[in-house]
Design a protein that fits this description.
Blueprint lengths: L2 H24 L7 H18 L3 E2 L2 E2 H6 L5 H12 L4 H11 L6 H12 L4
Antiparallel strand pairs: 1-2
Helix pairs in contact: 2-4, 2-6, 4-5
């Protein structure tokens, strides 16, 4: 009869360890989207650094990034381009469709070029 309480203690200790390991693994920063987000953030920084002076819809690329609460589509589409979620063609079509009556071509060309450049 002494073995059942001993087994119960062992089982409870094992369960506590399992919960602790699962919790710590969840806090480790591993996330299936993690590397994609990091890649996208690097891409956005590169776009802002190299294409910030170009204009989209009457605003500079730099100002569109700093206004990301009022211009979330630009940041979202540019991020999706950087992570490979949309093609270069769809990106250009989306930007030109949303920011109509503007000459966005120079900015789009610069941004799309950043996708292929290896510099960070």
């Amino acid at each position: 009869m002494n073995t059942i309480p001993g087994k119960r203690k062992t089982l409870v200790a094992a369960l506590i360890c399992l919960v602790a390991v699962a919790f710590l693994a969840g806090c480790s920063g591993f996330h299936p989207v993690g590397p994609k987000r990091a890649k996208s953030s690097n891409f956005l920084r590169k776009v802002e650094r190299n294409c910030g002076r170009y204009r989209v819809g009457g605003h500079t690329v730099t100002s569109l990034f700093s206004m990301n609460t009022s211009e979330p589509l630009f940041v979202s589409w540019t991020s999706a381009l950087g992570s490979g979620d949309i093609s270069k063609e769809k990106y250009a079509k989306s930007i030109n469709g949303f920011y109509q009556n503007s000459n966005n071509e120079a900015a789009i060309r610069c941004i799309v070029r950043q996708k292929g450049s290896g510099r960070k």
